[in-house]
Specification:
The complex is a heterodimer of chains A (255) and B (354). Chain A has 255 residues and is of the alpha/beta class. Chain A contains ten helices and ten strands. The longest helix of chain A has 21 residues. The chains are: A alpha/beta (255), B mainly alpha (354).
Amino acid sequence: MNALLTVSGVSKAFGGLQALSGISLQVHAGEIFGLIGPNGAGKTTLFNALTGLYSIDCGEIRLNGQPIEGRKPHQVLHTGLARTFQNIRLFAEMTALENVLVGRHARTRSGVVGAVLRLPATRREEADSRERAHALLQRVGIAQHAHRLARNLPYGDQRRLEIARALATEPVLLALDEPAAGMNPAERAALREMLLQLQADGLTLLLIEHDVKLIMGLCTRLAVLDYGLKIAEGTPDAVCRDPKVIAAYLGDEAI
Amino acid sequence: MPSLCPTPPRWLAFSLLAAGLAALPFLVDAGLGRSWVRLLDLALLYAILALGLNIVVGYAGLLDLGYVAFYALGAYVYAWLSSPHFGLHLPFWAVLPLGASLAALFGVLLGAPTLRLRGDYLAIVTLGFGEIIRIFLNNLNAPVNITNGPQGINLIDPVRLGSFDLSQPHELLGYTFTSIHLTYYLFLLFTLGVIFISMRLEDSRIGRAWVAIREDEVAAAATGINTRNLKLLAFAMGATFGGLAGGLFASFQGFISPESFNLMESIMILCMIVLGGMGHIPGVIFGAVVLTLLPEALRYTGDWQRELFGRIYIDPADLRMLLFGLALVAVMLYRPAGLLPSTRRRREFADAQE
């Protein structure tokens, strides 16, 4: 197994609060890696550190062997790490199709001159982008909403649109921040199917999730964070039985 | 299902529009008088300015209150290179691109330090930038006389193409084309060019990236958009159009002074965008035309009072601005998305009613 993402000794403090202290973990190519922990454990902070939204205090992050710490978000995305957000961040006043087209930005090149003169290369690129965007909307199951504004989509479809937008950037690693939050059981089942399908297509997934049933059934391996520390890592079964994990989730008295 | 009542073909609509635009100055001349043709020229100039600012404010969502600085730069570059002030008389087709390029350069220079700022903070810095340029123009007459200070620069060359002088009347097919008629066609040409570029950019990778930055800068960056470069590009594109309009203004007026480029101008251009429909090209043009013509039309309030009451109760100069302000407030209350909102915004209302 080769490591696609290697995080070593990453720390991040906000003033006096140590949000991440010396986190190290490895995500292998082709797996679904879960990141769990109580609220405020530092899961989203780690996501933000990985994707360049936060600068880290120390440590190293490598994707496919390339160091990506200290890079800007768009540069991180270019190396193949795309993400979704816990509190959905779509381009609200754009249509679903346009949202996915924005995802194509990083993988296309036409500039002002090409756009104004509609050069053949630009037209080809645009047609290709639209074709791929329609295919992605189809794939996440919201093709019927292509021309609706993102903000008017039902909640679950907004989450799917965010995944489609991230997929449009052609990532090798997709980081999903609570993709099932706010979904009903049927939507969760559909999401599960979709994530497994993405894995089958060769994508590696990094997943923050609170739904224990979903994460246990889906993930190859898990890491558990608590107060900015990694307290466990391993297969779902092993992590479940770890006394430190039980303590973090249920409180020390429960043991 | 084939439509029972076929819509007229596109070429027909286009030729009707073209004929209308071509005949407009003559119709206005005959109906309202020559001074209104001049206003028509100014309306086109403001349409170029508003479309330029629309790229910065409407698409990229960067609130720029110093836009008039680029207009001023374009105008002064034209005046320096094409008037007796420095004794230079370069042709307009060389000077206009120079002015636009210098404005674009300043757009990037202003944009670079303000990249981290958003919303009201950006507005304050750009407002300061606009004032700095104006004050520089006002004071750069000593020790070396560059701008001629508050007196401004006079005797700026009109547009000349070979032996064709735009400031002289010309006869064609029995019609007399005066200078302001010819200027109308020149400005119309440039306006159409700017509309074309705006439309093409709006529906492109670049335009979508701008709107994405406006909607959510963090998400845009995380989706692979180099927000720094695209914001600078928006500033540069907007400034280019501002500089172009400035050059046209200088050649049209023959005289410029720092007074023409005060904060009120920036605010007016911003009003045109907001009132017409932000980010929507027809709306922005409509806003520019309405806000150029309305204040002039309201000059007639004195005549209306005399007709109605036999005497003038309120000074028309005061009443004019009062009515203008009320009209702006009314539009913002009853049409918050602008007079001609984009289909996108209309679709929002349709969606909300589903």
